[in-house]
Design a protein that fits this description.
Distance between the termini: 16 Å
Strand content: 25-35%
CATH superfamily: Alpha/Beta hydrolase fold, catalytic domain
Number of domains: 1
Strand order of the largest sheet: 1-2-4-3-5-6-9-10
Structural class: alpha/beta
Largest sheet: 8 strands, mixed
CATH class: Alpha Beta
CATH topology: Rossmann fold
Shape: globular
CATH architecture: 3-Layer(aba) Sandwich
Number of strands: 10
Radius of gyration: 18 Å
Helix content: 25-40%
Mean pLDDT: 96
Number of helices: 10
Length: about 290
């Protein structure tokens, strides 16, 4: 397939809480109708993390309109690559992330998110999500019929199994817990509302529950040496998925970010990340 030059358009739409959901729209320089891929970052992540923009560019080069979004309460403010809205991060629930995805879908369908030359095909929308973003993507695909194809990168299967005993004790005794961002050294507060939302709405919000409803094409990709989310997570998701169009890929000798890091200033993608991206693009080429 020939590759296209890509342009990037940046914007923001309001969330249900009237907070900005910032996004980058990567589009190939063509006048065709384009299938759409929405990219969802994970916990302590953001759309501009590491090689994520490079991945979005490469997907766009292959003929997709790629919408990379920041969740409205992910902790990123005016600086696109540094956390400075800890007040929002502390209250970023899984329910709010579903609302944010719906806002993005509605903006694509209404034309609020659009390209000057190409037409975004609202009947062909796929999603790719990393880590917590993969968990969110699975639930979103069960919630929103617009999503017709899915790829997960190192997805969490059940977020309620992901809280540590120390975090739960903190929430019950203090009403909040703090986590360390090992990259920046920042101590980041997470309020009990996040835990309560996940527990009280587990039937609707846990990927391991909602995967049972999905018959769309899904490709689950995980690193065998993932230090943050065990590859057994992807086995659970794959086994509980009832559809026939599903694929599970365990990439050996790589971890949670598939060799990517932040900041990413290399000229070429790490081998494992390049493999991850090839599998992703091939899946969308075949199924979206």
């Amino acid at each position: 397939m020939s590759r296209h030059a890509v342009r990037k358009e940046t914007g923001a739409i309001p969330s249900t809480q009237n907070l900005p959901i910032t996004y980058d729209l990567y589009v190939p320089d063509v006048t065709d109708s384009l299938p759409v891929i929405i990219f969802l970052h994970g916990f302590k992540g953001f759309k501009d993390w590491g090689p994520f923009p490079d991945a979005c560019i490469e997907m766009a080069e292959h003929g997709y309109a790629v919408v990379a979004m920041n969740f409205s309460m992910n902790g990123i403010g005016d600086n696109p690559t540094e956390f400075d809205r800890f007040d929002l991060f502390a209250k970023n629930t899984l329910s709010q992330e579903q609302d944010d995805v719906k806002c993005i879908l509605d903006a694509i369908k209404s034309g609020q998110i659009s390209s000057g030359k190409a037409v975004l095909e609202t009947s062909r929308i796929g999603v790719v999500g990393h880590s917590r973003g993969g968990h969110t993507a699975i639930v979103a695909a069960a919630n929103f019929d617009e999503i017709s194809c899915l790829v997960t990168w190192a997805a969490v299967a059940d977020y309620n199994k992901h809280w540590s005993a120390e975090m739960i004790t903190d929430w019950k005794s203090k009403g909040y817990t703090k986590i360390l961002n090992s990259r920046t050294g920042q101590s980041m507060r997470v309020d009990k509302v996040v835990y309560d939302d996940a527990r009280e709405n587990a039937d609707a919000l846990m990927a391991i529950n909602r995967i049972k409803e999905l018959y769309i094409p899904i490709c689950f990709i995980h690193g065998k040496e993932d230090e943050a989310v065990s590859y057994k997570s992807v086995n659970r998701l794959y086994e509980q998925c009832p559809g026939n169009e599903k694929k599970r890929v365990i990439i050996p000798h790589t971890g949670h970010t598939f060799g990517g890091s932040h900041p990413f200033e290399e000229d070429t993608l790490p081998d494992s990340f390049a493999e991850l991206l090839d599998i992703t693009i091939n899946w969308f080429d075949s199924n979206l």
